[in-house]
Amino acid sequence: MYPEVIIHNSVSLDHAVRGFEVDLGLHYGALLAFEPGAVLAGSATAKSGIELFMDITLPEAEADRHRPEMRPDDRRPLCVIVDSRGVLKNLLHFYRNMEHTKDVVILVSETTPEDYLDYLCERKYPFIRCGRSRVDLGAALRELGDRFGITRVVSDSGPDLNDVLIRERIADTISLIVHPVVVGEGEKKLFNKAGGRTALELRKAVTMEQGTVHLVYAVKK
């Protein structure tokens, strides 16, 4: 089963993802309104989140080494992280303890270091292995749907992962919270490496707080 894939991001008017103050309430309010079965992120974004908002020196507790019990009535999304290089080794307990997600699933490739796979197995983190030198996102998301019954995935990540979702024609929808600021040069921009022309169809344009606008586009395939 191939899930619906939504790219969700907060950007400046010139599509920068940093260099301005993101309204986290608006960002995550709009994200959760999609009612995703899984929230997707890249390893760099995931690690950056730990460094920005948590004490990265906090050690793993014994309880963190055990997978939490899954309840059938738990409607929280899975946290799905693309990490073929093992960037998050010894850091995944931060995501296991997040109150807004029910479990952590890691996407890896055939060249992922064996010591990272051992780390995942010892702590019973489910993982999906697809692709040779990097994760085959299309195949991994299809397996995510088959194994976990996920019908909708929202990507809450940086430009690198989201550009792949556009370039490989995986994304179905683009959701942008556009902030009223032009960041200018020096910051990473969304869709700079998204490949050739991608046609979109506007589905929603809603004015939000402090001059922000929520734009939702369907990707024409």
Structure write-up:
The chain has 2 domains: 106 residues, Dihydrofolate Reductase, subunit A (3-Layer(aba) Sandwich), CATH 3.40.430; 113 residues, Dihydrofolate Reductase, subunit A. Helix 4 links the parallel strand 4 and strand 5. It starts with a strand and ends with a strand. The chain is globular, with a radius of gyration of 17 Å. The mean pLDDT is 94. The chain is built from 6 helices and 9 strands, in the order βαβαβαβαβαβαβββ. Strands 5-4-3-2-6-1-7-9-8 form a 9-stranded mixed beta sheet, with helices on both faces. It is an alpha/beta fold and 221 residues long.
Shape from CA axes?
globular
- What's the total number of strands? 9
> According to CATH, what is the class of the largest domain?
Alpha Beta
Regarding quaternary structure, how should these chains be classified? single chain
**Structural class category:** alpha/beta
The total number of structural domains is: 2
Q: What do the pLDDT scores average to?
A: 94
CATH topology of the largest domain: Dihydrofolate Reductase, subunit A
Q: Major sheet: size, sense and barrel closure?
A: 9 strands, mixed
The share of residues in helices is 10-25%
The CATH architecture of the largest domain can be given as 3-Layer(aba) Sandwich
